[in-house]
Amino acid sequence: MSAAIYWYGWLIVISPLVGFLASYIAGRKYRITAGIIASTAIGLSLVFSILTLLKINSSGQPIYNHFKWFFNIDAGIYIDHLAIIMALMVSFVSLMIHLFAIYYMKDDPNKHTYFAETSLFTAGMLGLIVASNLVLFFLFWELVGLCSYLLIGFWFFKPNATAAAKKAFIVTRVGDLLFLVGMAILYASLSAHISVLGANSPLSIPYLITNAKAIAAAIGPTTLGIVSVLFLAGAAGKSAQFPLHVWIPDAMEGPTTVSALIHAATMVTAGVYLVARVFPIFQASSSFALYSVAILGSFTAIYAGILGLVMNDIKRVLAYSTISQIGYMMAAIGLAGIIGYSGVAYGIFQLVTHAFFKALLFVSTGAILIALLELRDIKKMGGLWKRMPMTVTLLLIGAAALIAFPGTSGYFSKDTIISASYVYYLQGGNIASLLPWLFLLIGSLLTTLYTFRMFFLVAMGKPRSDLAEHAKDPKILPLIPLFFLAAGALFLGIVQPQFYGFLYPDYVMPSLPYYIQYLPEVLMVIGLVVTYFLYATDKWKKLHFDKSPWYKIVRNKFYLDTLFTNIIAERVIAPVSAGFGAFESAYNKAIDSIGTGTVGLGSRMRKLQNGIVENYFVIILIGMSIILLIMILEGVL
Amino acid sequence: MIILLLFSLMVIAAIASFFLKKHAFVYALGVSAAVLIVIVFYSVLRFHSGYTGGYISTFTYGLASKIGIFFSIGVSSFSDALLLLSAIVIFVAVAITRKKDYVPSIYSFMILIEIGLFGILISRDFLFFYIFWEVVLIPAYFIVAEFGGKNKDHVSLKFFVYTHIGSVFLLLAIFTVYSFYYIHTGIFTFQISSLMSVKYFAMIPTTLKYFAIFGFLFSFLVKLPSFPIHSWLPDTYETAPYPGTVILAGGLSIMGGYGLFGILLPVGSLLGNTVLYILIGLGIISLIYFALSAMMQYSLKRMMAFASAAAMGFVTLSFGAGILETGIEQPLELAGGMYQILAHGLIMTLIFAALYFINQKAGSDNIYSLGGIFREMPVLSSSLLVGLLASLGLPGFAGFIGEFSVLVGSFQAIGWVIILVIFAMIITASYHIWAAQRSLYGPYNEHLGAIKDVSAAQFSILLFMMIAIFIFGIVPNLYYGSFLAYLGALI
After folding, report:
1. Quick one: closest CA in A to B474, which residue?
2. B136-149: pLDDT as tens digits
3. Do B335 and A71 touch (CB under 8 A)?
4. pTM for this one?
5. Please, are residues A340 and A370 in contact by the beta-carbon 8 Å criterion?
């Protein structure tokens, strides 16, 4: 397939790459230009994405340009409906956040580095989306991970930030390398079946997704299932799914716009995109592959929801909500194992709406944090609605979409997933397939609880600190990007049927009896009422969970961080490597002692050559006697 | 012919360099730059397209034809890649060396090492191969012994003796193969291509055949180095002056790898599965052992010495697994190992050059004596970070191509043991990032006082290396394709 090179497709990635270099070089001299250049480059990406969308719509064919990279690995772009939706979302949200960041980072002395890195990140993200081969995909996958590392540690002088950056890098690296093993197995299995592979590159995405069934038949659905689960492990690392989610809350030490861009809207959804991208592979595998996606997603949704309840750091609350919401997306794709490809469409729609409302939440949080000088404890806020009406209203819009308040975009995307999970149970028919629905349903109650606990604590009541007392709205200009995000968060639901249809023309909407259908809304109302009575007033101050052992367990994040950091890293890896270090130096000494031993022997031998003739004579006598003795004993003499 | 000419001129230039005092630096820089430029043009012209395996630019001159001694040279794509690498490494080593710290003879030693490396890579005759193998050792010894840090006498002697023991076995192995070739054919020859041919190599009696194999492998694995014959490496790297470390890590590290893939590969099928599994095992143990040993080092230089050794574990693994495998993984696996040698040399050159500058400016390369230096030296710190990221195998940099090929290719041979390799890679990532966190980031260590970032000239050297690493990571086919052609002609 050597279609003519479609340059607009390539330019989607190239433009922010150029922006990366240009904003850094120009920004070194004139700091102010960095943000403008980066935003322009990403704006151009958005334009190219739109042009590509038109092209795909008019031709009805995905765009596939590729060339040989090395050996039988090829590289290039593959843009189908899924990819173009992601590209549009990423370039739009990234543009909005960049525009806001011009305001947010205005006083930072290193902002040219910041904009260069976010621009590079956007290039990596868009590259990942349009990559035509898993190896190239992996390259960009690691590039966004690298940018995430750099940007979490952007304030490099903060020990917390650098520790968080390190943690993010290593934890995601674990997932990434499992992903790499998955690729290795897939590659090796396909190489053993040349008849199926033909002249294709074994890891080319279009090849994999169009021939998934044949591949499964050749290499066996179980092997393919193992490959899928390893891919899922990679996705779990990047998308912060249990148990590799531990890096995200710490990553909140970075600038808030970074949290919005990377750790809420775009990069963390890359894992979901990976599963959606190679979905046919998952589907052709044994059923455990997609079931594990569904269970992993729904379990993470409820797990992170519980943790979100006890956090007092506003960004950490949002971080756990991100983990939880990504759980919904994963679960939706996992559901597709039984309910069909519609599940993927539900998941991707949730991904897109989530990008809007979560970016909105984070960015408006960023505006609040600027006013509060980075005071992040929600228990020290309060009464901000009166003081920062505009920002807090935007926060409310985001929060409403997050809890799937009817009418907002989150309602359309998330409610469908919860309904679909019940359909999954109906069609699956056993108790195991009920679990996703249960988890997701409880998860929706938890979402309401932690979101509005946070919101009421921030917005209502009386200010509980001086900073909150004197907080003020920023000027209207920096908030303009937020209005776009808010519009998306509110109204994207309108395009729901078109969206599903664009991804999958034969989609079906889940239809359920009303008492199941409206359960999430009932739970949401309960959640709202409870949080209103507790947190919009001062009643929460009388709550004392501290004594409860359950609270302690949750506060300690179910000891998972303790397990990873204090037990595995500090009690196992560190002593083991110290042991290896000690062994190495002992071994080194032993080798040295062979050398020094030889030298020592030599110097002792030297003493024999002392020039005293008597000694020589004695030695000669002894020697001759021994020789004679041997000769006699041997019977020669 | 151009290679012969270049080589002769280099020999003359090296001799001349010993008579220079004042202008030694400029002279050495000029020579190494000229060599680099010639090699780049040569590579582009002869290997960019149309290379189909085997040796080109061959030249043979009978010195003592009766007993089979020829001065015989030739270049394959693999040796060309390493010629380019050594030219780059020596150029960088010369360029970063501060004149005032060293006497002019260090530059002459560097040029001599370059000659030795070139000699090894272009020799098609075992005797000359061996001579150059030793030629490299002597100036390297002098650089460590004369300009090294603490314990330099002890360490340089250890380096010399240790690697020389390897060379002795190499010589014994060469003579074994040489004699049996004569017994079977009645012809005396040191031609590598004749001696290392499956047909005649297989005729050697089993014990002596394995002795020869042992001799080759031992001498190559010492140089590589591989666990458990690596003890010279951490000490030597740490004690050598930084320019010397650059040459050791970037230049001398190719010798073992070239020995495996350039000399031994043609008879690889005769090694036997046991030996191959031992090699695979040594490769994996090296990866894990060196990674774990590196983690708790305080000196960045020593830590990167272990990292360098660990990276060579991929080469051993690739060699063992690659010969064992069949089908389309085989070329992927072997080419991956060859690419790893190239990438490793480039990356280590960047890292040690950056560390040299850090050591110059901050006065230390101890992790705990640094800390937060990003604030004062953002450019230099970023350069080191690029090196570290490349060294841990991040895609987009040269190291990834090799590691990816080896990892993906080796699944056929080693199956789920691959998890151990992955474990090593996780540890590798961890200690690299951990070292960066402690030395580059965090609050600034005010004891260091005010320090300046690199000068434009110094940065241009680092940038040159970064660009090279990046280009080889993005456009692997600069060499990957011709490596495959080289392999295709052999196996």
Report:
1. A69
2. 988 999 999 888 88
3. yes
4. 0.91
5. no
